[in-house]
Write a structure and sequence with these properties.
29% helix, binds zinc ion, 138 residues, two-stranded antiparallel sheet, alpha+beta, four-stranded antiparallel β-sheet, 6 strands, 2 domains, rod-shaped, 1 helix
Length: 138
C-alpha cells in the first residue's frame, strides 16, 4: 500500500513537472510569435511620397525641388523636379505623372507649387500644376 502511494505520488509529480515545462514552452513560443508580429507591422517607414511618380521615399531619399525667394515670407514659389526614382532617370515601371492634369511630365519638365511657411505647423506645399498644364501662367 505504501509503495503504491509513493509510485502514484512520483507519477503525479512528474506529470506536474512535464505540464509545467510544456506550459513554459507554449508561452515562450507565443511570446516569440507576438514579437515577430510586432516586427512585421513595423516595416521601414516611408517619410514622404514623390508627388510625380508616387513612389515611397525611405531613408535618405529626398524630393528634388527648388525654392525661389519671393517678397512675401509666407508663400514661396517652388518647383518639384522629382525623386531618385524618377529623376534624372526613370526606374522600370515608373511614370512621371502630374497630380493635377494626370498627363505625363517630360523628363525636363517639373511641377509648379507654392510653399506656405507656417509658423505653428509644418510647411505646406500646394501643387498648382506641371510644365504642361501650367504653361500660360508662368
Ligand atoms: Zn518620383
Ligand atoms: Zn499638369
Amino acid at each position: 500500500m505504501d509503495s503504491d502511494f509513493i509510485l502514484i505520488f512520483i507519477l503525479v509529480l512528474t506529470a506536474l513537472v512535464i505540464l509545467f515545462f510544456a506550459f513554459q514552452l507554449v508561452s515562450n513560443r507565443s511570446k516569440k510569435k507576438r514579437e515577430e508580429k510586432l516586427k512585421f507591422v513595423r516595416p521601414e517607414k516611408a517619410i514622404s511620397k514623390c508627388p510625380i511618380c508616387s513612389s515611397d521615399l525611405v531613408g535618405k531619399e529626398k524630393i528634388f525641388s527648388k525654392v525661389f525667394n519671393t517678397e512675401s515670407r509666407t508663400t514661396q514659389r517652388c518647383t518639384i523636379i522629382g525623386c531618385p526614382h524618377c529623376f534624372p532617370h526613370m526606374e522600370m515601371g515608373i511614370r512621371r505623372k502630374c497630380p493635377v492634369c494626370k498627363k505625363n511630365i517630360p523628363q525636363e519638365g517639373y511641377l509648379i507649387a507654392h510653399l506656405f511657411n507656417r509658423k505653428d505647423s509644418k510647411n505646406h506645399v500646394h501643387i498648382v500644376g506641371c510644365t504642361e498644364c501650367h504653361k500660360k501662367n508662368k
